[in-house]
Amino acid sequence: MNNNYPMQLAQQNNFSGNFRLRDALIGETKNGKQYMRIFIEDMDTCLPAYIWKEELYRDVYLPNNVLAKIEGRSRYYYNQLQVDLTAINPVGFKRAGEVIRLIPQSICPLPELLVDLQSAIERITIPALRQFIEAVFADDGIAFAFVSAPASIKHHHNHPGGLLKHSLECMGMVSRHREFSQDSYQLGQVAALLHDVGKILTMTHSMARTSLGQNAEHEKLTYEVLKPYLAQLERSWPEGAKELKYDMGWKIWRSVPRYNMADLVACSDRLSAGFDMDRKRA
Predict the structure, then answer these.
(1) Is residue 23 a contact partner of residue 15, using CB atoms and an 8 Å limit?
(2) 76 vs 28, 36, 80, CA distance in Å?
(3) What pLDDT band is residue 253 in, cutting at 50, 70 and 90?
(4) CA distances (Å), 56 to each of 23, 60, 86, 170, 272, in order?
């Protein structure tokens, strides 16, 4: 299935695929027939779905944003596309290439940026690095917070979804500089995207600072958030992991960096922040 789910469902009545499910509600028709209504969702689709057979949902636990493989048929009701589900099975893992698509749009205050995030990750072609970045975003605890948190409370990109916007801007700036080796070029893109991921532990999407955020610097927390995935990268690509950690942590007020890419990542961080402040003053 491609990303144009509503159009495809309208053209092909039968379908199957992995989606997020949320807001399950038991209802009853005018003639007394019981059903469950639930929304199926991914990064650019949100459709109401109905389950008419009690045995399909009776023994299935469906918390918000659970990932499930569903099957069904589409139909229009008062010009609104809907789905009647014929099968529903919770899924415990995400397939490679689907981790961004399966971030529900309702989680992200700027859902249009999820397409940009997916495209950015698709540009990472080094196998070990691609596995690393997909593993990071396959973790809902990281991905959901990353796409919804602000980049700051009172400074730059200080709005829900600001962290995602700032991170993509930084990655885009790094992507313009192709004079680096392929390894450094792609490591720099990933470093620019994830350099502020520690902020998911210091701020919330509701523009509040966490208790941890009042006592710890987000730069140090970035390594804690990524620790298990960096460990995996160290096993598959030791030199790459070493450079990635350095690129994410080096700051422009320090001495000349060991890797030139670290300088570019730090500059992209400062420029993205500065441009956002300029936009606010304009």
Answers:
(1) no
(2) 19, 18, 5
(3) confident
(4) 16, 8, 8, 46, 49
* Average pLDDT value for residue range 169-183: 97
Domain boundaries, the chain: 5-90, 107-281
Would you state the pLDDT for residue 2?
43
Select from 96, 77, 100, 136 the least CA-distant residue to 20.
Answer: 100
DSSP letters of 93-153? Answer: S--TT-TTTTS-GGG-SSTTHHHHHHHHHHT---HHHHHHHHHHHH-HHHHHHHHHS-S-S
CA dist., res. 276 & res. 272, Å (int): 6
Count the neighbouring beta carbons within 10 Å of the beta carbon of residue 78: 5
pTM for the complete prediction?
A: 0.91
Distance in angstroms (rounded) separating the CA atoms of residues 91 and 74? 22
In 3D space, the residue among 27, 18, 8, 21 whose CA is nearest the CA of residue 74 turns out to be 8
- pLDDT tier at 11, thresholds 50, 70, 90: low
DSSP state of 7: H
Report d(CA 89, CA 17) in Å as an integer: 10
- 185 CB neighbour count, 10 Å cutoff: 18
Contact, 202 vs 209, CB < 8 A?
yes
Q: How far apart are CA 96 and CA 100, in angstroms?
A: 10
CATH assignment, 5-90: 2.40.50.140
Q: What are phi and psi of 129, to 5 degrees?
A: -75, -40
Residue 9 has pLDDT above 70, yes or no: no
